[in-house]
Amino acid sequence: MGAIIQGVNESQVYSRPMTRCRRFSAVLALTMLLMPLAAFAQQFTSSSSSESTFVTQDREFRLRGFAESLEKAAVIDAQFRSQRAEYYSVRTQKRRDCRADIRAANKTTLLPVLVQCERTELNDFREFLAQQRVQLEATAGIVPFVRADALRRLDALSDAMKTIIFAIDSGVYGSKEELLEGKINLYAKYEFPFWDAWMSVRVDRTLTWIAHVIAKIDVLRQQESAKGLDRAALRDARACLVSEEESLHRLTSPGQAKDRSEKIGPILMAVQDCVHKIQKIPRALTESGTLLPSP
């Protein structure tokens, strides 16, 4: 719910989880070499004998159908990015207006102003979640159980907000303190769990993109090996991605939910650095076409 009740530490109660997620999503622009996925899926082999069977099988599983889902997902992702930008822009203005109304209110009108502001923000957030649900259903590179858990928590959050809206319309909240208690409960029971699930989505999607790029590097190295080539740039980029892949896998382990929000940002930045190693490779030497950012 919105950060509009006075006298409360906003960083503790009202910081929007989705706002923090946006900081992380900005570093997910992985680079893919443009060669048909089907062409290398059958040729895919690990270039390191030290990589576990689990890792290689996990990559192969993630790549099944990934290329086919990218085109549809790219359209929906672009639409959602536009919707998200509009949502945050409108929310910022509405919060500014609410703060002005709160400052102008007296003891008699303060509670009605607070309640109306909260109702508006809840309703707008539910509409945004409906848009996010469409994007989540279509996003490429998420394994089924991670997607299902995120959708389940999203629906639970949306239903909880609907209940609070109904309570507001029914006049249940008779004081500022009661409204605050409702906000805190919503965050603890529904909003934070969804944010945690969304972190899982970001981790999972990045693991798939890493598998995608590693597989392309492996194929390219195979092609170059047949010509007697073994470029250090490709070896370094692959080793870099494998290292960050291991770090991301550790964030999927039980017991990581509370602190992974602090760890994921640096890891995703490191992944971006790995991608930069690939981007520095001369285009004429890739034999795979232009380098483009991922969706």
Strand ordering within the main sheet: 1-2
What radius of gyration results from the CA coordinates?
A: 23 Å
Percent in helix = over 70%
Oligomer: single chain
Content of β-strand = under 5%
How many β-strand runs? Answer: 2
Total helical elements: 11
Instruction: Look at the helices and sheets and give the structural class.
Output: mainly alpha
Estimate the mean pLDDT confidence: 79
Indicate how many domains the architecture comprises.
Answer: 1
Task: Pick out the low-confidence regions.
Answer: 1-49, 284-295
Principal-axis shape equals elongated
Order of helices and strands: HHEHHHHHHHHHE
Can you characterise this structure?
The protein is mainly alpha-helical. It has one domain (10-293). The protein is built from eleven helices and two strands; from the N terminus they run H-H-E-H-H-H-H-H-H-H-H-H-E. It has a two-stranded antiparallel ribbon. The two termini are 30 Å apart. Residues 1-49 and 284-295 have low confidence and may be disordered.
How are the elements arranged and paired?
Layout: H1 10-13, H2 17-25, E1 31-33, H3 37-41, H4 53-63, H5 66-104, H6 110-138, H7 144-169, H8 176-225, H9 232-250, H10 260-279, H11 283-286, E2 291-293
Attribute tags:
295 residues, mainly alpha, two-stranded antiparallel ribbon, 11 helices, 2 strands, 73% helix, elongated, disordered C terminus
Question: What is the structure about, briefly put?
Answer:
The protein contains 11 helices and 2 strands, in the order H-H-E-H-H-H-H-H-H-H-H-H-E.
